[in-house]
């Protein structure tokens, strides 16, 4: 079913516009909350993914977080320069780069579950539990292929 046509499409009333604007608001608020840790919300995703062993290579992180490989490389460079992660070549396949948090990276990643929920809950404060569950369900439905 097509929800939009050339006749009824309005940029500022489109789902894409609302999702993009919501993303930008959330990133701005999350970046401000992470300022003292000297990381960004995108870097938070990398650190938490490594901490939780959801992804352990740049390729896995790129796919999981929806970040192109060039940007991922630059972000990993910054995190490595900050001493938060280290790279090592796979023994089985030298083309594969494995990522691991340093002690400092583990410390920063350990603080993130204290910070991120405050930002998210601030945005969700007007939602009932049912509305929150429905929003989550609909977002994941939107993301399905």
TrEMBL record:
Keyword Transcription: yes
Record keywords, A-Z: DNA-binding, Transcription, Transcription regulation
Lineage: Bacteria, Pseudomonadati, Pseudomonadota, Betaproteobacteria, Burkholderiales
Protein name: MarR family transcriptional regulator
Organism: Paraburkholderia polaris
Entry-linked PANTHER family: TRANSCRIPTIONAL REGULATOR, MARR, TRANSCRIPTIONAL REPRESSOR OF EMRAB OPERON
Domain HTH marR-type, residue spans: 8-144
InterPro entries (UniProt xref): HTH_MarR-typ (IPR000835), WH-like_DNA-bd_sf (IPR036388), WH_DNA-bd_sf (IPR036390)
Gene3D superfamilies: Winged helix-like DNA-binding domain superfamily/Winged helix DNA-binding domain (1.10.10.10)
Gene Ontology molecular function: any one: DNA-binding transcription factor activity
Keyword set includes Ribosomal protein: no
Domain of life: Bacteria
């Amino acid at each position: 079913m097509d929800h939009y046509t050339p006749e009824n499409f309005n940029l500022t009333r489109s789902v894409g516009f609302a999702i993009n604007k919501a993303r930008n608001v959330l990133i701005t608020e999350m970046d401000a909350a992470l300022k003292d840790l000297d990381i960004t919300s995108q870097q938070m995703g990398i650190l938490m993914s490594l901490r939780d062993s959801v992804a352990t290579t740049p390729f896995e992180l790129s796919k999981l977080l929806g970040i192109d490989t060039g940007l991922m490389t630059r972000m990993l460079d910054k995190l490595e320069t900050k001493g938060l992660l280290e790279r090592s070549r796979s023994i089985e396949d030298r083309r594969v780069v494995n990522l691991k948090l340093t002690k400092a990276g583990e410390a920063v990643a350990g603080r993130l579950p204290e910070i991120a929920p405050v930002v998210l809950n601030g945005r969700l404060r007007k939602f009932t539990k049912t509305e929150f569950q429905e929003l989550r369900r609909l977002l994941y439905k939107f993301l399905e292929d």
